[in-house]
Specification:
330 residues, alpha+beta, 5-stranded antiparallel sheet, 4-stranded antiparallel sheet, 10 helices, 9 strands
């Protein structure tokens, strides 16, 4: 969710983008200009929610389809904990070899590194002639057309880069650079907001949706209790619970239902645990429980009881009192 100051900033960006498209869209028809504006405005649609940087990258990729033509697209994201820029989304419309997702970006002596450090767009009209290293020294890229890198910068910080490749040389114009430079300021703001929220969440010890321990804190607590159990020669066990998927779930429900589903299941589990349990949320669908003073058989019996309770309890906030099942591992 955005605060009121964020809404004002978004409104300013939208007005700027509208003016820029009107002034600089020399090559495109009105229909193309409308598509560009619609793509840009889609990023602030209240129905669009993302919980991870990968969902954010999917949003950027979807919007970028109508902003400018490209044969390959890569989205680079900065991980503050690792202090590294990585390619979190790569789309290649051709059969040629291109960058792999997850690749780490070298800041020294690369085009992307220069764009990140200087916070300025970089346009290369003939990649083959320029001979520049784009992402890292170990890259194996067969594209030899045009290349364009637009950094996602906000408040004098760079949070990522969006890169466009086209098989044709001299394809991207200075007009394209101007449009993208200003248009992607909106995305830079969204990435900045997400990155800031992610850093705040890292400082928390509990999952905001369920109030169970988050993954990082769960791992820390489990390691401490395992050492304690080893010293005192006490039995312990680890249980993982996964909310099962079913084929029709994407067509039956609108929007993301899992925060409510997870919260309902967590409330049921909390009625079955005591001070000998460490309880955490490990991912969107996975819960973890560490059981102190329990044998593996005890843990399996307990987990099986939970599995049956979840399977038999309808979730009343969903249509037709839908029921979910869970898988378990001990």
């Amino acid at each position: 969710a955005y605060g009121i100051e964020h809404i004002y900033s978004l409104g300013r960006f939208v007005r700027i983008i509208s003016i820029i498209i009107a002034l600089f869209d020399e090559k495109s028809s009105e229909t193309q200009a409308e598509k560009r504006l619609e793509s840009l405005l889609g990023v602030i649609n209240s129905d669009l929610k993302f919980r991870t940087e990968f969902e954010l990258a999917d949003l950027l990729e979807h919007s970028a389809r109508n902003i400018v033509d490209w044969d390959a697209l890569s989205i680079i994201y900065f991980y503050p904990n690792e202090k590294k820029f990585k390619a979190i989304k790569v789309v290649n419309k051709t059969t040629l070899t291109y960058l792999e997702e997850g690749s780490v970006i070298d800041l020294d002596s690369t085009v992307i590194g220069k764009a990140i450090i200087n916070r300025t767009p970089i346009k290369i009209d003939d990649v083959a002639k320029a001979g520049n290293t784009r992402y890292n020294k170990s890259e194996s890229i067969q594209f030899e057309g045009s290349f364009l890198a637009i950094p996602l910068s906000f408040e004098d910080e760079t949070y990522g880069v969006v890169c466009f490749e086209n098989m044709k040389k001299f394809y991207y114009s200075n007009t394209d650079v101007k449009i993208l430079k200003h248009a992607l300021k909106l995305y830079a703001f969204v990435v900045y907001s997400y990155s800031t929220q992610a850093m705040y969440k890292d400082l928390l010890t509990v999952d905001p949706d369920t109030q169970a321990l988050n993954k990082a804190e769960f791992v820390i607590r489990v390691k401490q209790m395992m050492n304690f159990a080893k010293e005192k020669d006490i039995n312990c066990a680890l249980v993982l619970l996964n909310i099962d998927e079913f084929a029709e779930e994407n067509t039956l429900f609108e929007g993301n239902i899992y925060p409510k589903v997870m919260k309902s299941i967590v409330e049921l589990i909390k009625t079955e645990i005591n001070h000998n349990f460490i309880f955490g949320r490990l991912s969107t669908r996975v819960l973890g429980l560490f059981l102190l003073n329990h044998t593996t058989n005890d843990a399996f019996t307990w987990a099986e009881r939970i599995r049956l309770k979840v399977a038999r309890k309808p979730l009343t906030f969903l249509p037709n009192q839908t029921m979910f099942t869970i898988s378990l591992g001990v």
